[in-house]
Specification:
- The longest helix is centred in the middle third of the chain and has 21 residues, at 52-72.
- Strands 1-2-3-5-4 form a 5-stranded antiparallel beta sheet, covered by helices on one side.
- It has one domain (22-145): Histidine kinase-like ATPase, C-terminal domain (Heat Shock Protein 90, 2-Layer Sandwich), CATH 3.30.565.
- By secondary structure, it is α+β, with helices and mostly antiparallel strands.
- It contains 3 helices and 5 strands, in the order βααββαββ.
- It has helices at 33-47, 52-72, 116-123; strands spanning 22-28, 77-83, 88-94, 126-131, 138-145.
Length: 158
């Protein structure tokens, strides 16, 4: 996506010592794209040397948010952005069309659907959603504390 899009703000803090790590990818809004989103996220987070626990949580959150965009919207593609601003990891997924009112937590669900946002809520330090502005659709985001540089106890960080 080009700078200034609904998902990538025009201005970034590039003050001395600030890292501007940002990665964005788009995939077709099909069920098989969820596995691709997990792999793309895992590969990038490995390159960023994110701690193992944060990486696993982030990959699960990417999976849940992309799944929700595929299942609950009439999108033809979904866009995922990973960024590391100021000591945290931010995940944002944009779809092209949303249900009125945005995503909602379902506290009690007996079937296998409806638990994704409960996982996102439990694993993230904050999450939310908003309209994509001039673009169509909705952006659902989640944040995790950044555990970069902490020993992971394994060869592969994530």
């Amino acid at each position: 996506m080009a700078p200034g899009s609904a998902l990538i703000p025009r201005l970034m803090d590039l003050s001395p010592g600030a890292e501007a790590l940002r990665y964005c990818f788009a995939l077709p809004a099909r069920p098989e794209s969820v596995a691709g989103a997990r792999e793309l996220a895992r590969t990038r987070l490995d390159a960023w040397d994110l701690g193992r626990d944060a990486c696993e949580a982030a990959v699960l959150i990417v999976s849940e948010l992309v799944t929700n965009a595929v299942v609950h919207t009439a999108s033809t593609r979904v866009v995922c952005e990973l960024s590391r601003p100021g000591g945290r990891l931010r995940i944002a997924v944009q779809d092209q069309g949303h249900q009125p009112g945005g995503p909602r937590l379902r506290r009690s669900s007996d079937d296998e659907h409806g638990r994704g946002l409960l996982l996102v809520d439990a694993m993230s330090s904050a999450w939310g959603s908003h309209d994509a502005g001039r673009a169509s659709g909705r952006i659902v985001w989640a944040e995790l504390p950044d555990e970069a540089g902490q020993p992971s106890g394994a060869e592969r960080t994530c």
